[in-house]
Design a protein that fits this description.
The protein is mostly helical. The protein has two domains: about 130 residues, Orthogonal Bundle (Helix Hairpins); about 35 residues. Keywords: Ion channel, Ion transport, Membrane, Potassium, Signal, Transmembrane, Transmembrane helix, Transport. It comes from Denticeps clupeoides (denticle herring). One of its GO terms (molecular function) is outward rectifier potassium channel activity. It is found in: Membrane.
C-alpha cells in the first residue's frame, strides 16, 4: 500500500472519529445536564423544606444522591475531548473506562458507529502493517547485505557450532541445578 493511500485512510479515520465525537457530544450532553439538575434541585428542595428528616424523604434523597454519585460530580463526561476518546475506544475495540451512552439514540448510534468504524480501523491497521512490513523487509535486506558475507558452505560449520553450544548450555545448567538441589536439600535437613 502506498503512503498516499495510507494517509488518505488515516485522514478518513480521523474525520470519522471527529464526527463520532460531535454526535456523541450532541446526543449525550443534554441528558447528562438534566441528570445533574435533578440532583441539584432535589438536594436544594430537601434542605429548604425540611428541618427534621423523615425516613421516606431521606430514602428518596439517598436514591437521587446515589445515582448522582455513581456518575461522579458534575464534570462533563461528554465534552468534546471525552467524546473523541470514547469514539476512539469504540472503533479500536479497547473499551477503556466506564463511560457509555445513556440515551436510547446514543446507544443506537454507538452500535452503528462501531459497525462502520471497527472495519475501517482494521483496514487502517492492515495498511500500516503492510507498510511497516515493507519497510522492515527492505531494512533487513540492507543489513544482511552489509554484514552477512557467509557462503552456503560455511553453514554446516556454523550449525555444528550452534548444536555444540546449545548442548553445552543445557548440560551445564542441568549439572548446576542438580548440584544446587543437593546443597539445598542438605541445608534443609
Amino acid at each position: 500500500m502506498r503512503c498516499s493511500t495510507l494517509l488518505v485512510i488515516l485522514t478518513g479515520v480521523l474525520l470519522y472519529l471527529v464526527l463520532g465525537a460531535l454526535v456523541f457530544h450532541t446526543l449525550e450532553t443534554q441528558n447528562e445536564e438534566n441528570n445533574h439538575l435533578v440532583h441539584v434541585n432535589a438536594s436544594r428542595q430537601f434542605l429548604l423544606r425540611y428541618a427534621c428528616i423523615n425516613e421516606t424523604e431521606l430514602d428518596d434523597l439517598l436514591k437521587v444522591t446515589t445515582m448522582a454519585a455513581s456518575e461522579g460530580n458534575f464534570s462533563s463526561s461528554w465534552d468534546l475531548a471525552s467524546a473523541f476518546f470514547f469514539s476512539g475506544t469504540i472503533i479500536t475495540t479497547i473499551g477503556y473506562g466506564n463511560i457509555s451512552p445513556q440515551t436510547e439514540w446514543g446507544k443506537v448510534f454507538c452500535i452503528f458507529y462501531a459497525l462502520v468504524g471497527i472495519p475501517m480501523f482494521g483496514f487502517l491497521l492492515a495498511g500500516v502493517g503492510d507498510h511497516l512490513g515493507t519497510v522492515l523487509r527492505k531494512a533487513i535486506g540492507k543489513i544482511e547485505d552489509l554484514f552477512l558475507v557467509r557462503t552456503l558452505s560455511d553453514c554446516p560449520d556454523c550449525l555444528k557450532s550452534l548444536i555444540f553450544l546449545f548442548t553445552s548450555l543445557v548440560s551445564n545448567n542441568s549439572l548446576i541445578i542438580h548440584h544446587y538441589s543437593k546443597v539445598t536439600a542438605a541445608l534443609n535437613r
